[in-house]
């Protein structure tokens, strides 16, 4: 008997998983659940890695990356989106209202206004102050992220057993202007195949992009691996090829059609949030470095 409905998300994000659960528990579909769920983090200015309040690039611009994928394999994505908080909802509009998958930069922003999204300043005083402080040295190093608030990737199975996923981020703090990470790239930051399962990623996006981690995990599950085994293999794929692995974090979470879940990361400290009928809890992830 499959576990459903169920939702999981990267990091300890109880507001987001509660919101998604409310949608699922009321009989809603997994696409609405993941969108509404991650919107909580996008609107939360205390999360400085997602949506409004996100840390800017090195020029002081907050630029958002997000994507969403449904049970049919439809997907939509925005990259380098500015001045609009709910990047995931713009991505959903790209999926549903256009013949395209990805809209970038000014085009994505213009599309969002046409769809009625408000123009907002996403740079909070706090993120601005920290950026000005950073500028004094301008030392760029992707941070090994072990905080409990970060890029949010969310995967859900609804009452009908259908799977959807979403991923949204403001990307690496103080990135070069124009940089796009893994989070809005289908197959890298997120992948859903309703017959098999789904996966999503957090951490240094460049590493995930090079191995198309989320697609890899879903394909490994297709070949019979459990979500846990598939996440471990995807992390192994990175650390065996990248000698620098001690200096970055990658975290994957995955779910299969039965509602079994798994996660794995490079550095200790990554957790994921899980909400099903029987539990709402933060689950510690196993890590390559112990
Ligand atoms: C990125 N993967 O833009 C995102 C950042 C992230 O935890 O996940 N931070 O590379």
From TrEMBL:
Q: Per UniProt, where does substrate bind?
A: 179-182, 202-205
Q: Does the keyword Glycosyltransferase apply?
A: no
For the site Cleavage, which positions are given?
A: 150-151
Name the source's superkingdom.
Bacteria
Q: What is its EC number?
A: 3.5.1.26
Pfam families hit by this protein: Asparaginase_2
Q: Which InterPro entries match?
A: Ntn_hydrolases_N (IPR029055), Peptidase_T2 (IPR000246)
The coiled-coil segments of this chain are none
Is-annotated flag, keyword Hydrolase?
yes
Q: Which residues form the active site?
A: 151
A molecular function (GO) held by this record is: N4-(beta-N-acetylglucosaminyl)-L-asparaginase activity
Could you list this entry's UniProt keywords, alphabetically sorted: Hydrolase
GO-annotated cellular components: cytoplasm
Q: Which organism is it from?
A: Saonia flava
Write the protein's name.
N4-(Beta-N-acetylglucosaminyl)-L-asparaginase
């Amino acid at each position: 008997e499959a576990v459903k409905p169920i939702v999981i998300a990267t990091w300890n994000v109880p507001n987001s998983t509660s919101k998604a659960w409310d949608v699922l528990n009321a009989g809603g579909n997994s696409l609405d659940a993941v969108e509404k769920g991650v919107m909580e983090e996008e609107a939360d200015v205390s999360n400085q890695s997602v949506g409004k309040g996100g840390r800017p690039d090195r020029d002081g611009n907050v630029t958002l990356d997000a994507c969403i994928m449904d049970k049919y394999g439809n997907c939509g994505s925005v990259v380098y989106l500015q001045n609009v908080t709910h990047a995931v909802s713009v991505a959903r509009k790209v999926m549903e209202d256009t013949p395209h998958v990805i809209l970038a930069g000014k085009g994505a922003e213009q599309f969002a206004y046409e769809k009625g999204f408000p123009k907002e300043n996403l740079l909070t005083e706090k993120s601005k102050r920290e950026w000005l402080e950073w500028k004094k040295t301008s030392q760029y190093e992707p941070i090994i992220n072990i905080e409990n608030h970060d890029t949010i990737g969310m995967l859900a199975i609804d009452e009908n057993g259908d799977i959807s996923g979403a991923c949204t981020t403001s990307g690496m703090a103080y990135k070069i202007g124009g940089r796009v990470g893994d989070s809005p790239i289908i197959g890298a930051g997120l992948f859903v195949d309703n017959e098999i399962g789904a996966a999503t990623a957090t951490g240094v996006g460049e590493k995930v992009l090079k191995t198309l981690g989320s697609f890899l995990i879903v394909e490994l599950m297709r070949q019979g691996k459990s979500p846990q085994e598939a996440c471990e293999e995807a992390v192994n794929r990175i650390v065996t090829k990248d000698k620098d692995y001690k200096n970055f974090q990658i975290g994957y979470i995955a779910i299969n059609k039965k509602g079994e879940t798994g996660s794995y990361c490079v550095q200790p400290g990554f957790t994921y949030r899980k909400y099903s009928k029987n539990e709402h809890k933060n689950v510690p992830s196993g890590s390559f470095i112990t």
